[in-house]
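Chain A, query sequence.
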Amino acid sequence: MEIGALGPLDVPAGPAGPPKQRAVLALLLCRANTAVPFHEVVEELWEHDPPASAAANIRQYVSGIKRLLPGVTRRGTGYLLTIDPRSLDVWWFQQGAEAARSLIADGELAAAIPVLDSALGLWRGPAVADVPAGPVLTGWRRALAEQRYVTCEDRAEAFLGLRAYDRAATQAHDLLALEPLRERAHLLLARARYGAGDVAGALAVLDTARRLLADELGLDPGDDLVALRQAILHREADPATLPPVRPQPATAQRRAPRQLPGEVSPFRGRAAQLAELDRLFRGTGSNRMVVVTLTGTAGVGKTTLALHWAHRVRGWFPDGQLYLNLRGFDPGGEPVDPAEALRTLLTALHVPAARIPATLDDRSALLRSTLTGTRTLLVLDNARDSDQVRPLLPGSPECLVVVTSRTALLGLVTAGAEPVRLEPVDPSEAADLLAARVGAERVAAEPGAVAEIARLSAYLPLTLAIVAAQAALSARQSLASLAASLGGLAASGGGSSSPGGLAAFSGGPSSPGGLAAFSGGEVDVRSVFSWSYRALGPDAARMFRLLGLHPGADVSVDAAAALASCPPKVAEDLLDELCAAALLHRTGSGRFATHDLLREYAAELAVSAAEPSAADSAALSVADDAGAAVARLYQHLLHTAYAAALAITTGRAPLDPPLEAPPGIPVTHLPGHAAASSWLEAEEATLLVVIDRAFAAGHDTLVWQLAWTLADHLDRRGRWDAWSRCAAAAADAARRSHAGPAVEADALRFLARARTQLGHPGAEEAYQRAMALFAEVGDLAGEARACLSYGRLLSAADRWAEAMVTDQRALHLMREAGHDRGVAAALNSVGWNHAQLGDYRSAIAFCTEAAELSEEVDHPMGLAAALDSLGYAHHHLGNHNEAVALYTRALQTYEQLGDRYYEAEVRTHLGDTHAAAGRPDEARAAWQSAWKILTALDHPDADELTARLTPPADDA
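Chain A, predicted structure.
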């Protein structure tokens, strides 16, 4: 049975059941192969007013769906539909649109048109048009429609590139009939009219666009509209030579970042603040940048409001929406350093790692330059103070910045930022928040209880959401009895913290605006937290406590399983139970996160010596459990990182002896390079914090082992500043713990490589020290690896004669050690040095031996490197056909290994050889392929291909 996802569901109305069952079916289909939480199903069907029979009704709907699609199963507290995505035409549409985009990027415009036609031909009307859509399906439908509009624009771009101006105009005109405010579509139509020779028509299109943007949105025309109008007015371009859409290395547009997290719960209230934000938004694009500060106490809903409003206006910021949690009051770690925050933002804007400067001021200047002329939205969440934020401001009047903080950020306000202060909600808004979760009828029936719950919750959206979640879970209990139990707990001091609370865990007092700010007054939010916590089952309560020990901003299922010493499936069920109680929420990446106040409360419970709940009386002391949980977490992170390190670097020698996870420690399964890289990226911040904490606590073995696992990941991502700190800590830890000279030497080798990349002094000294330490213990292979690394430093400085001496020593050491793969690598390095010094025949002799030895010992990476070097030498001897054959063999090997960077390097060399042999078309094709790979990797070497791919000015 085929089920369409772009038009009406291809399921007869009878078998698919009543409208709400069809809505559940559509929801499961649009989230196919992803678990849909129970609360989202409720929200989709009834939004703010679910009936008491909601759970029973949903079970009945799912049962009916299972008769149609047996792939529906329970997953935690929600449901999962497992289905072949190829049975959904939405999948075919998205695959086709992406394939066409790739063809356009390769300059294959004629081939892209039928692919676009096929993808767009799948549309038969609005998505799931015959289903009563609630908020979840409505959001999905809008996102899918946006994909359709972008694909239509891509089709018009392709026609422009083919000089099919009439067809481009028709496509753009049809799109504007549906979406008249799309600036890109107006640009496409104007370019098409101009290309067809209709100058007046092109100017009329641009005038219409300017008027619509001003009248409907209060916005001035963008730079692209202004520039095109000037070009047409001054006849600066010949209509016959409008450039085709193809990759242009110097100016190619990159995919704009879309980083806004999804909204966790339905938004209610804050009408006055939303109106003020709308007013400030209308000021963007004037002569100054708009910076809005959303400030207020913890739990007042700053992030919720910021994200809700950012989603409302994101469509007017086509160049990107950036989100960064600055962790200003994070109970588990330090605020994000501004230099590190800038690196994160620049990376999101596709600035290659090698181009990100080392200093704070230079990074700040680069961010301003990168965002100049763009319409970009920045949400800087949870800022510590003005000093943390100031370097992150773009400076461009077209950009909008929203900053949330518990402090007033007076430094920003004094400099012109617009302050919006959030206070606790008023009683009517509190009632609305409760009604959104427990139902309007239930709230209307007990207004006195609602007022008391709001008072005891300090009128904070965070605490109201927690109470509402408990009320929703206790549907048969009156709100009056819930208010009484909450009030009784507050009166008894049941929410107060013990002296051995967060301070004992973090080494300092609670952060300003944290739990301490709510203690001692009429209302203590700990009372609400404690009330909800005590309603948990014993295992979920223990899981909540232990999550307070996790140092990261979010947690994976496997990490939670390690903390709680339980199977991952059990851990996920417990996490879902905490989500149902509003003590936790799922992130878009399938991980789990919570509010800083709740993390602080969980941390207090985790290290408290007193049992907070009789339900936990069978457990060990909480403090003992905390210590064991942290040890398990660290072991999980270490051993999964170790597996990931071996997966991302083909042929990397394991530690000696290899690490083996202790029994009962979950190690995340990482099937291949991509999964390993994604895991390391998700856990990177947590791993860096663990290294810092382990070093401070004297866990030196863990420090140098974790630093070893992160080395290649940090190097590949250009995280050389973090790598330098890790390597320095590892070297110190190795010395301090007497781990041995070889361990220290390896850490120094990493430190030298990081310093080389950063341009910091001391790299040569670190290499010399590493080589001496390896020599001290007779580790010939280790000394040789250090020599080869040092040789790369010398080569990068064009000190080829010195590099030759160093690499020859590495070759001697590898041979003496009997390390065949190392011998092959050293032979290739010596041969490459000969080639750079102009002795191509000696280069061929050494590299041929390297290739033969690599084949003999089954070392494909070494073989590919040697073949590339041989191709380079034959190219410079004029043996072009031999060079092409060698490069082709090297390419095949790198493609099999999945090493994209070296594949691009060989393709560049191949293009050079074709060019020297007088084959310009083949040369351009090779360079084009290399440029595409390097651009996807955000590697600065892409710039070196610009001159090769850009035609001379007189040919333009």
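Residues 856-956 form a domain with the Serine Threonine Protein Phosphatase 5, Tetratricopeptide repeat fold (CATH 1.25.40.10). The two ends are 53 Å apart (CA to CA).
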